[in-house]
Amino acid sequence: MLRASGIHYHAGKKQILKNVSAEFHAGEFNMILGPNGSGKSTFLKIFSGELAASEGIIQYDEKELRKIPRETQARSRAVMSQHPELSFPLTVEEVVMMGRYPHFDFAPAKKDRQIVEEVMGKMDLINFRERNYLSLSGGEKQRVQFARVLTQIWERPEKGIRYLMLDEPLSSLDISYQHEFLRMAETFLGKDTVIIAIIHDINLAIQYAHRLFFLKDGELVAQGKPSQVLNEELLLHIFSIKARILPNPLNGSPLILFDR
Amino acid sequence: MLRNNKWFFIISLVLLGLILILAIAFGAVSISISEMGSAIMHYFQGKAPASIHEGVFLQLRLPRVLLCAVTGAILAVSGVLMQGLFRNPIVEPGLAGTSAGAAFGASFIFVMGPKISPAIKEMTGPFLVPIFAFAGGLLATYLVYSLAKNASRISIMSLLLVGIAINAVALSGTGFMTYIARDPQARSITFWNLGTFAGASWLQVWITSAVAAIIFALSFRYSKQLNALLLGEEEASYLGVDTKKLKTRIMILNTAMVSVATAFVGVIGFMGLIVPHILRLILGSDNKKLLPAAIIVGALLMVLADMGARLLLAPAEMPIGILTSLVGAPIFIILLKKFNILGQKGGYNA
Question: Among A155, B26, B62, B212, which is least packed, fewest CB within 10 Å?
Fold first, then answer.
């Protein structure tokens, strides 16, 4: 379990997060939603260890995050951030292999190569192996980055928990790859895996999430199972736009329509 | 990008060997292979050189070509390191103020040292100059970074602009030293701004090689972390890299080796730009390949350039810095164009 307790974050005088507490359980697909500027990415950066909270504590599996060495964190926690800014020519394989960096010293071991191979196969990247990363389209780059992130924590840990964190992983993907990504992440789940994703498409979130977390103006406004937490007032409050909730004709789960 | 890197390394090593032999053979005096052989034999037998040619080979040509090779390797590796650090292919030690600052430090102690105390020149001449060069290089580099920093981020644009200013200050400092120097000194100072290998000595070769060997070895250890940094600082830290520590270490190592080289041969611009540019086209940007390749190709191109500097105006000699800038500046412009300039890509969170 990943636990955030009483997280505050200030940037200068501006308070970006106000007393946010949340528990992300292993075996659940946790998704964070909220309007632009609500503090989602900042929250992710704090519980992933990239930013230090002004106040509050992050615990990974009951251990305080800042007491876990950076290298140890990197072996069990992978993060896909919004805008990787690689601007040098590297092959797709070289980029995916970077995910194994926390696991070897100088040269990749046989196991590292096998994992890279396996992930590239699962992500349809085998034919891209020698391609220059810079020559890829936005969606293809995102697939490569996702492969790199999965590679980092591919093996299930012998003990403890692995953490997969995704900050808007779907932004440049077509519909079929959006589902592909989320299904791929789903196969990762288990009692040893915590997954947390920031997602914009609420209907997509409903289809995969076990638990939704809504942020607005730096506060955690609501959380819970999609079927329980969602209601029209909440959506109006959070997104400031009128919504209607219907049963999805395909599977009966909630389907949200926004009025113009 | 090349699939089979093994051949690249084999071919470039063979070429380097050939160019080294050619560079030793040709010059104001030509030296045959057999003369080289017998000079080396006589040296190891402890005998005096048998001819003037052998003397020229041992005392002038060989140290010069070797110093040249080591300096080329240093500048090329420095280019790779700095570009990795800034995630931008248009950074090099000449542009970031390091070389000019080092040249000022060197010329400062060279001129002022004897004025402060005559003992300085006698006792620690060859060591004090690189130490002051390092101090000057470090100061200039630090000034560039801290002045270019804007809200804890250094954009490439501001780095280059501040670099221009600091380079100008350092250059005029060196100019001032030239101006107040006594006449025979003055001649040897001008070279710090233009770059030349004409004064190469064995002591310089040993010092530079020792520094280079240590720093290259340390840089290799960081190649994986430098690769991770290419993804961005955030991604690198998610991969377990302490980016702050990495940046400080690379910066100091880099400044140290560039300063030592500059102390002995002056400012040689654009080598740190040309070599990595060529290598990235052939090998891609994996630092594990780039760093060793930069050593070989940097040495190769510098020896070639020095041969050009010696032979183009023979029997007179041209400062090598003029030649490298002539070739390097257009490549710099091409890179500026190609990367659709400045602001957008790369940068540096300080």
Answer: A155
Domain count for chain A, please give it.
1
What is the tens place of the pLDDT at every residue in A13-42?
Answer: 889 999 999 999 999 999 999 999 899 999
Distance of CA B80 to the CA centre of its chain: 11
B230/A contact by beta carbon, under 8 A: yes
Residue A183 lies inside a defined structural domain of this protein: yes
Contacts of B285 in chain A (CB under 8 A): 88-90
| ipTM exceeds 0.95, yes or no | no
B108: left (phi over 0), alpha (psi -120 to 50) or beta: alpha
Q: What is the span of the domain harbouring residue A197?
A: 2-83+159-229
Query: Which structure tokens are listed for B267?
Result: 């400012």
* Structure-token pair, residue B171: 């250059």
Sequential DSSP letters for A46-93: HHTTSS--SEEEEEETTEEGGGS-HHHHHHHEEEE-S-----S--BHH
A118 in any annotated domain: no
pLDDT digits (tens, 9 = 90+) for B255-306: 999 999 988 888 888 889 889 988 988 898 899 999 999 999 999 999 999 9
Report d(CA B80, CA B272) in Å as an integer. 7
Say if the Cβ atoms of B232 and A79 lie within 8 Å.
Answer: no
CATH number of the domain that residue A43 is part of: 3.40.50.300
A246: distance to nearest CA of chain B, Å?
A: 40
Tell me whether residue A10 is in a domain.
yes
Q: Please give the residue that has the higher pLDDT: either A190 or A247.
A: A247
Domains of chain B: 65-349 (1.10.3470.10)
A33, burial (CB in 10 Å: exposed 0-12, middle 13-18, buried 19+): buried
Query: Shortest CA distance to B74 belongs to which of B234, B275, B231, B222?
Result: B275
Residues in chain B: 350
Helical residues (DSSP H) of B199-242, grouped into ranges: 202-221, 223-230, 233-238
pTM score of the predicted model: 0.88
